[in-house]
């Protein structure tokens, strides 16, 4: 295999993994910290994409529009948490039902506002060539964003006072409350952070996917798989699960066909969960 | 951030919120429920009152999207008739004794079942809009047999189960004809239901071809019609080596087979072929493989919202191999994608909004008057729906009766044709498919297409070879190449 082909394969692999990590991270934060399965996660991503679209249409610089979109979705997440989610913590089935309902409402609201198809946004950067392969520079943006997102989440959780309190509220809510932590507010911020990460993922993907109201469904299944396979230590878990699943899918697609690639992805998830029911980080790592 | 302790809330509040959330959820499910009074009026007529109205977002007549502020439309009288007199629920026998109702001024009830919500609505929305416009137009021009049409439109919500429930409901509604279905899976689910009930069925969608069923008429273009135009052009203009990317279900698979056949006929060959499950939205690996195989042209038979990503990722990668497609634009991809991602893609369809003829000018003007000037794009699919309704109406008017056998016989004469916005289309009698023009066009930089060549009267050749319902009326199967 020629060197340019090898570089190209690695580049594709890194892109796949980055996208997987980006779309999973927000879900992982919310699930890992709060035990809430946010079935509207895909729609939070979608909202991020549409917010970016609106931003650029109103003359914002595209990068600025993306940042704004993440913030907007974060705020939206906080509102949702205050109105719905906080009343349902600890009730897994109820949160699933409520967030699924929310997802339907969000799709229809966006559709009423933008219609079922609306004009997309251009890819803001060009492409480059290695050997006989032409590749998108935007993939580099996605990779950098994935790394940045993971590092930022890790830093927030490990190095800030909020992170400390959030982990305390997760590990022993009663004890944290006994020590004077307002867990309700802490949890609100946690949900907001997860939502903002979903929004950022949507914003970053907006130029390279079709921005339509139902786009969330495309990502949610994979994001769930990455989160479940990743296990409780969600930052490390997301990274390792994205890496593993992305690698397997890519190899399958490359050596066989895209159908086999998808099948291998699912097989890998099943195998991992059979032997590591708590996910990759289930036994060894702490949160 | 001040994390100050606050009082724990009583649980009943949480309970109330859960209830509200559930209620919202229910509202979300029936998301297309409209609050016009018409459904109430029909429910009095229902013979099966169980769940139909609330559960499936019925909009019982064409009022839904029709703005009520154009009173000059002849469509309007239809609904007062209905709501004023909820008369004779069961004993208006439509099917057989056509002569028994000589001066009948009651509306003819007709049905439609399309995905107006959910992921398939990128296709379904324009089709549902076309349905309403077609009914309105037929009514404005005197209706069918002098009677107005009344539409029973159900939303199948991109859900296969909703199709089956909806088809059962339509069968129970005592209708003259049903125009329904988008995906091939949905068609195959509901076609037997309508066949069983002897309810005339029109399928107005581009599809993989081969359906041969006496009760079913198809206005959509089939792969042979598109590919016998597109592939020779691609081979001649771009080169003989083709790489096929297709959606992994029967439409994509069968189309890929036809591509191989027409490529060989045109002196080309397929050098690579990949099929994608419908939820794949990441094409990096594939784009590399295409570049690695270095074909002269990429043939895309990718379908649906997720597959849209291919075009933006392909353009972003800077790959310069030209793309032709039999499916690009069906879901208004050229609108949803940035112009740079779609520009230059060559497609072959019967209809483009940009077609330059007087019928199309009138059609687009009527459409925009109804749905606004900045409607994203009147899709090819929308026009099959438009034709389906008009061909049916013309056939009924020629036959002089709503009787299913007589209407089928009329449509099978091969003389029922319609001056469509795309040109003249004619129902081919033996195959129940449409002979229609096919145009080649190139996606331009302003989210539209530039039509550069039109081929008139392209026959559904595979269906004509394999299917003769005049000679063998009992045939009921889907032929595959």
Task: Note down, in words, how this protein is organized.
The complex is a heterodimer of chains A (287) and B (481). With 287 residues, chain A is an all-alpha fold. Chain A contains 11 helices and 2 strands; from the N terminus they run H-H-H-H-E-E-H-H-H-H-H-H-H. Chain A has a two-stranded antiparallel ribbon with strand order 1-2. In chain A, helix 1 runs parallel beside helix 5 and helix 2 packs across helix 3. Chain A is globular, with a radius of gyration of 19 Å. Chain B folds into 2 domains: 262 residues, Response regulator (Rossmann fold, 3-Layer(aba) Sandwich); 126 residues, 3-Layer(aba) Sandwich (Rossmann fold). Chain B is built from 17 helices and 16 strands. In chain B, the strands form 3 sheets. In chain B, strands 7, 8, 9, 10, 11, 12, 13, 14 and 15 form a 9-stranded mixed beta sheet that branches. A 5-stranded parallel beta sheet of chain B has the order 2-1-3-4-6, with helices on both faces. In chain B, 53% of the residues are buried. At the A-B interface, helix 1, helix 4, strand 1, strand 2 and helix 6 of A face helix 1, helix 5, strand 8, helix 10 and helix 11 of B.
Kindly provide the radius of gyration of chain A, computed on alpha-carbon positions and rounded to a whole number of angstroms.
19 Å
* Helix count, DSSP H or I runs of 4 or more residues of chain A: 11
What structural class should be given to the helix and strand makeup of chain A?
mainly alpha
How many strands appear in the DSSP assignment of chain A?
2
Question: Which short descriptors sum up this protein?
Answer:
heterodimer, A: 287 residues, mainly alpha, two-stranded antiparallel ribbon, 11 helices, 74% helix, globular, B: 481 residues, alpha/beta, Rossmann fold, 2 domains, 9-stranded mixed beta sheet, 5-stranded parallel beta sheet, 16 strands, disordered N terminus
